[in-house]
Each structure stands twice: as C-alpha cells, then as structure tokens.
C-alpha cells in the first residue's frame, strides 16, 4: 500500500524565488543566491514537484533578471526537483539565446526544466532593450517558433534531454495566451487571482479547443498560519508588499497606479482576497476548489521576499507535512476526471 | 603566472565537475568554459559549476556583439552572485557582428557599474526612448542586481585584441599569436594609455605538448609581452602536470641553480 502523499506533492510546486532585497526586507544578495540552492534542496527533500522563479529587470530591489542562470546552480545540487518559471519574459530576450539557455539547462539538469513564459508588462523593461511593448505578442509567437526549431535540431544544436523540448508553460489568462497554449499543445499557468468559478470557465474554454493545451497550472498565494491574530498580521504585511509592486509598476486605466489610489485598492482587494492565509484546513479547502475547477497542477507562491529564510523554510515544511493528506481526495477526483 | 584549465565544452555536468575539481585541487586559478556548438550558453554551465566547485575562478568565453549586451550583463551579474564573485568574462567578437564589438564592450561595462546610465551608441541606445513605450518614466536605467564583485573582470579575446587593449582591458590571445607581435601591441597601448595599462591581464592559450616545452614558451611569452595568464585545454591529468611541472617553474623570474634538477630527480614532477 502506498501513501497518498506523493501523488499530491507531484501536483504541487512552490514559488516564487525572485531574489529581491526590498526596502521592507533588505538582504545580503550573495547569501540569498546561496539560500536559493539550500531552499531547492529542502523542497526536493520534502517531495515537492518543482520550485518556481519569476523574472523582472532593472528594478531597485534586484529582482532576478536571469532566473535560468540562478536555477542552474540549484539544479547542480539537486537530482529530482524540477525548475519552473512563472514567468520568464520571453519577448524581452533574444529568442535564440533563450532557447539555447533552456536547452543547456535541460541537459545540465538531466531534463528538469519547466519553461514558463509570459509577455511582460513594464514599458521600462522593453524600452531599455530597444523593444516596443506593443509588439510583445508577435515576439512571443516568434520565440515559440524559434524554441521549437532549435530544440528540433534545425540549426545543428544538440537536443535537450526532454523531447521535443522542455515543457512550455504559457503564462496568463488573456484570450491570446489561451490560444497559444491550446493551439500549440503547451501547458498553461494562470495567475494567482483567479477564483475557482472563473478558473472553471477558463478550463472549459481552453479544453474545448483543438488541439488543446497540455496541463493547466494555477498559481496561488499561500501562507499557513493557524493563529488568527498572526494570520491577520501576515495579511497586512502581504498587502503592503504587493501594494509596492502594484503601485510602482501597474498602469490602471491609463494612470500609474500610485496616482490612481481608488483603482489600486480595487486591485489590491482582489490580490489579498484570493490569497490563502490561514489554517491548513482552510488552505486545503481553497486548493481543493482549484483542483475541482480543473487545475492539474498548483504552484503555491509562498516566497514573497518579505519573510526571513527561517520562516520561509518553516512554511515549506508546513505545506509538505499538512496539506497532502487534506488534498488527497481532491487530487484523486481530479485524476479520475 | 596564473593558470586556467579550459574544459572540454559539454553539458555533462559530472564531467565538467570532475575536471574543474581537479583544477581546483591542483591549485590552478580556475577553469574556462568556452562557447561552442557543444555548449552554446557557457554562462549557464558556469552557474551550474559554481556550487560544485567552490573556490576556482569561473572564466566564461563567449561571443559579444550579436545579442543585446544588457541581457548578457544581467546574466553575468546573476552568475557572479551565484558563484559569490568568481566570474570572469572573456568576450570575443561575435561572427558577423565584428563591427559592433567595441560598442558592445562599452555598453557591457557601462551596465556592470552600479549606477544609472544612458548609453548612446550606433547599434544600441539605452533606454531607447521609443514613443510607443509611453509609460516609461526614467531617462536612465540601472542594471540590477549588480555583480557580486566590485569590478567584474572583462577580457577581450580572439580578433578583439586592439579594441580590448585600447580600453585597457585584459586580453586572451590565441595559441598561435606571435609573442613579438603581441609585445608590440601592448607597447603601443602603453604609449597611448600610460599607467592605465598597469596590471592589465595578458593571457594566451597554450598547448601542453610537454611540460618543458610549455615552460620555455611561457618564459618567452613573459619576456616578449608580459604574459601573466596561461589558458590550457585539458583534463584532470593536464591540471596535475600544470600544477607540478609547469607552474612552479614560471612564477619567479629566476630560480636558484640546481632547483629544477632537484625537482626532476626527486620526482616532484609527474
């Protein structure tokens, strides 16, 4: 008789390691990059499917602009754990270099790359690289064509370990993102703010297309804290954390978000409301609803660069040790469907 | 004289690790990973080697001038952080993009400094100030994170000799580079730059045909152009020969009479 736990953990990744040193939580960067490797070792020991990073560039906190390179170091000290991104900003890269970097990492890691890619949204990032943001969709489609060609060997490159290449996860929930995933048979990774009923509609939509997507993954912000007072405090910290990013970067109805406080608060309410912060039972209920709404895989965002490393590692333990028994029924039902 | 062991280009991490460990254990200064058909993105391999080999310098030789130097600078900064400050970039002109090499060197090094910058080149303008990117707010960009090292070393290589030297950068010469011609190039750079060239790395690829031949060539290189780095392709056995039979003989300007004969007789050399 086998334990139900591995089946659940096979559907759970943890994220998002972004290597930021924020005004509210400054860090030593060298220690943080070394800490990422230690966290990957722990995630592997605890049985998680994967660890996920995310990319931005040219921001004061040092958000990692080259996650595949940071992941290469972590892959070198692990053997089974997979490495995902939610997401790499594919249109901001030279597609040939990105295709080859992913293939080299796939070979160096023995086939453990999950290549999550999205469009990117900050004008400043595109402009620094001499790119027009409004052409990002076209560049994304070109990049997907280049990946396929490079990994197929059309240009003489040695093949990646995974065939036909590292699984591609298309990030987003816009119609074009769904089309890209369904049209090319790629996986989909959808943002953390989607409620289960919205996810159900999205999954029904994308699964009705041909050839259809691979897996549907869902990001979700998660923090296990059974004590209600402490959970409230964490929710406040969490809200402040996202208000900085959203206020600085987002453009809401044509206005930079810090200058549109009403719109910003509406967005913040959704981010905070969709986060699962509470007891293992409360969190399991929220995650079970996502499996029930058609998710094949969940990336639990537990690293917000606001908690210290000890608290983060404690969360990884709590997730791995408390959620699998609570989720085994939901995962079994999802598998049966 | 410093020694870098050039590893056989590969994405076999265990093979890379074994050779790099041997180089490190032998006391060589580091390893070099070269971009090639078998290893298209050596920076990612260097990142993977970083936690496997904890002390050796990680030199990465790659094409410069084809893709955006800002993207390369970001990758270099992350690999330098991942290796706690052991990266060394060796940049050669990318085939077909030779005309952009000098500008790429300038943009790369501008980006690696920890300050906001604007760059107005013929090939690259950063930020580009494209009117379609209407929500950009800054006139400058700042590469974040900065590398771990206060000043990440960037050497030229291949056909990039004169562009590297006129910027006061280190340079890795090919194995067939004529020592006297290199000496003349460095002399010209010294005339032009004066003390700005003090301490600049003068490297050449070398072959280990035999320890005595290599020792003679390194002494000649030191005399002709001030060679202070040898990059030698090979494996664990190569590292051992370099460490025992070559390196001790080329560190000082002159050894006491009889010491080399003593080493030969006592079997210190392999």
Structural class of chain A: alpha/beta
Helical content band of chain B: 25-40%
Strand content of chain B: 15-25%
Strand percentage of chain A lies at 15-25%
Radius of gyration of chain A (Å): 19 Å
Task: Give the overall average pLDDT of chain A.
Answer: 95
Give the total of beta strands of chain B.
Answer: 10
SSE ordering of chain B: EHEHEHEHEEEHEHEHEHH
Strands of the widest sheet of chain B, in order across it, are 1-2-3-4-7-8-9-10
What is the global morphology of chain B?
Answer: globular
Number of strands of chain A: 12
Low-confidence stretches of chain B: none
Radius of gyration of chain B (CA) equals: 20 Å
Low-confidence stretches of chain A: none
Largest chain-chain contact?
A-B, 56 and 53 residues
Largest sheet of chain B: 8 strands, parallel, barrel
What structural category characterises the helix and strand content of chain B?
alpha/beta
Oligomer: heterodimer
First and last CA, distance of chain A: 23 Å
How many helical stretches of chain B?
A: 9
Average pLDDT confidence of chain B is 97
Explained architecture:
The complex is a heterodimer of chains A (337) and B (270). Chain A is α/β, with parallel strands linked by helices and 337 residues long. In chain A, 50% of the residues lie in helices and 15% in strands. Chain A has helices at residues 5-9, 29-46, 67-75, 95-108, 123-128, 136-152, 175-184, 196-207, 228-249, 261-274, 280-292, 309-336, and strands at residues 12-17, 50-53, 82-85, 88-89, 113-118, 168-171, 187-190, 216-224, 251-252, 255-256, 276-278, 297-301. Chain A has an 8-stranded parallel β-barrel with strand order 1-2-3-5-6-7-8-12, surrounded by 6 helices. In chain A, strands 9-10 form a two-stranded antiparallel sheet. In chain A, helix 4 (95-108) links the parallel strand 4 (88-89) and strand 5. Chain B is built from 9 helices and 10 strands. Chain B is globular. The two termini of chain B are 20 Å apart. In chain B, strand 9, helix 7 and strand 10 (229-233) form a beta-alpha-beta unit. In chain B, the strands form 2 sheets. An 8-stranded parallel β-barrel of chain B has the order 1-2-3-4-7-8-9-10, surrounded by 6 helices. A two-stranded antiparallel sheet of chain B has the order 5-6. Chain B is 39% helix and 17% strand. Chain B has 270 residues and is of the alpha/beta class. In chain B, helix 1 packs parallel to helix 8, helix 6 (179-193) runs parallel beside helix 7 (211-225) and helix 7 (211-225) packs across helix 8 (236-250). At the A-B interface, helix 2, helix 3, helix 4 and helix 5 of A face helix 2, helix 3 and strand 6 of B.
């Amino acid at each position: 008789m086998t334990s139900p736990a591995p089946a659940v953990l096979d559907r759970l990744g943890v994220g998002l390691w972004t290597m930021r040193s924020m005004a509210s939580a400054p860090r030593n960067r060298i220690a943080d990059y070394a800490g990422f490797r230690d966290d990957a070792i722990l995630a592997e020991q605890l049985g998680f499917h994967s660890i996920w990073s995310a990319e931005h560039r040219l921001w004061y906190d040092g958000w990692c602009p080259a996650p595949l390179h940071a992941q290469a170091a972590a892959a070198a000290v692990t053997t089974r754990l997979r490495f995902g991104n939610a997401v790499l900003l594919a249109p901001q890269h030279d597609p040939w270099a990105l295709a080859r970097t992913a293939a080299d990492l796939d070979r160096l890691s023995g086939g453990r790359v999950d290549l999550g890619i999205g469009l990117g949204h900050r004008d400043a990032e595109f402009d620094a690289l001499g790119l027009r943001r409004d052409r990002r969709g076209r560049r994304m489609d070109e990049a997907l064509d280049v990946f396929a060609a490079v990994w197929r060997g059309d240009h003489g490159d040695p093949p990646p370990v995974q065939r036909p290449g590292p699984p591609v996860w298309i990030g987003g929930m816009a119609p074009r993102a769904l089309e890209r995933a369904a049209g090319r048979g790629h996986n989909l990774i959808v943002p953390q703010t989607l409620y289960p009923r919205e996810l159900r509609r999205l999954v029904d939509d994308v699964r009705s297309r041909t050839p259809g997507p691979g897996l549907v993954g869902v990001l979700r912000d998660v923090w296990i804290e059974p004590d209600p007072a402490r959970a409230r405090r964490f929710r406040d910290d969490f809200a402040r954390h996202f208000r900085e990013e959203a206020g600085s970067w987002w453009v809401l109805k044509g206005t930079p978000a810090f200058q549109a406080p009403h719109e910003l608060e509406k967005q913040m309410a959704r981010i905070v409301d969709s986060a699962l912060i509470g007891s293992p039972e409360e969190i399991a209920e929220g995650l079970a609803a996502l499996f029930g709404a058609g998710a094949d895989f969940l990336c639990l965002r537990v690293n917000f660069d606001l908690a210290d490393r000890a608290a983060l590692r404690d969360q990884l333990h709590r997730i791995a040790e408390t959620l699998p028994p609570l989720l085994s029924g939901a995962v079994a039902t999802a598998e049966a469907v | 004289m410093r020694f870098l062991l050039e590893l056989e280009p590969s994405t076999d991490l265990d093979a890379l690790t074994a050779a790099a460990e041997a180089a490190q254990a032998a006391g060589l200064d580091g390893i070099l990973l070269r971009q090639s058909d078998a290893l298209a993105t050596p920076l990612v391999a260097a990142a993977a080697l970083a936690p496997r080999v904890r002390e050796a310098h990680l030199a990465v030789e790659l094409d410069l001038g084809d893709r955006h130097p800002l993207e390369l600078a970001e990758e270099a900064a992350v690999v330098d952080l991942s290796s706690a400050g052991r990266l060394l970039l060796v940049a050669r002109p990318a085939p077909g993009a030779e005309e952009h090499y000098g500008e790429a060197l300038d943009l790369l090094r501008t980006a690696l400094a920890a300050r906001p910058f604007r760059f107005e080149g013929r090939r690259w303008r950063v930020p580009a100030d494209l009117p379609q990117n209407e929500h950009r707010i800054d006139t400058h960009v700042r590469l974040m994170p900065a590398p771990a090292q206060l000043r990440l070393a960037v050497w030229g290589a291949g056909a990039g000799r004169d562009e590297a030297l006129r910027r006061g950068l280190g340079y890795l010469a090919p194995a067939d580079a004529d020592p006297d011609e290199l000496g003349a190039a460095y002399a010209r750079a010294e005339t032009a730059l004066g003390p700005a060239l003090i301490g600049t790395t003068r490297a050449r690829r070398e072959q280990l045909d035999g320890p005595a031949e290599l020792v003679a060539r390194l002494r000649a290189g030191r005399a002709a152009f001030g060679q202070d780095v040898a990059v030698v392709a090979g494996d664990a056995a190569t590292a051992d020969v370099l460490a025992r039979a070559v390196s001790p003989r080329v560190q000082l300007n002159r050894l006491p009479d009889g010491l080399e004969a003593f080493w030969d007789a006592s079997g210190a050399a392999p």
